[in-house]
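Hi V.,

You were right to ask for the full record rather than a summary. Here it is.
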Amino acid sequence: MTDQSPPPAAAASPPSPEPTPQGSPSGVAPSGRTSPPPLSSTDLPTLRPPSGPPQKPTDQLPDSIVTGLVVRGGNGPCFGVQNDDGKLYALHSSEGVRLQEGTFVRVKVEPLLLRINCGPGEHHSIVEVMPVR
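Predicted structure:
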C-alpha cells in the first residue's frame, strides 16, 4: 500500500520583511521617485517700490504716430492736435478728412512736403486717422 498522507507541512512562520533603507545616498526615495532639492537659504530678489513717477513717457510711440486731442478741427485741410505732453501738431490733409474738435485721435503722419502754414505746432501730413475710444 502506498502512503497517501499529505507531505509534512513546513513550519508555519511568517515571512520576514525585507529591510527598508532609511536613507538612500543616491537621492532616490524608496518608491523610486527622486527627492526634491533642498530649499535655498537665501531670500528671493524683490523689486523695490518706485521712487516716483517716471520723468519721461513710458509708452513710447514711433515718430510717425501722433495721439492726442483735436484742438483745431473741421473739414480741413489744416488741423491741430495736442498730445498728452502738451506738444502741439499742425496737421494737413488734402484727402477730405473731417476732425471734430474735442475728440481724441491717433494719426499716422509723414513729413509735410508742401510749403503751407497750418498754424502753430510741428507740421506733418496726415496719412491715416483712427479715432481713440
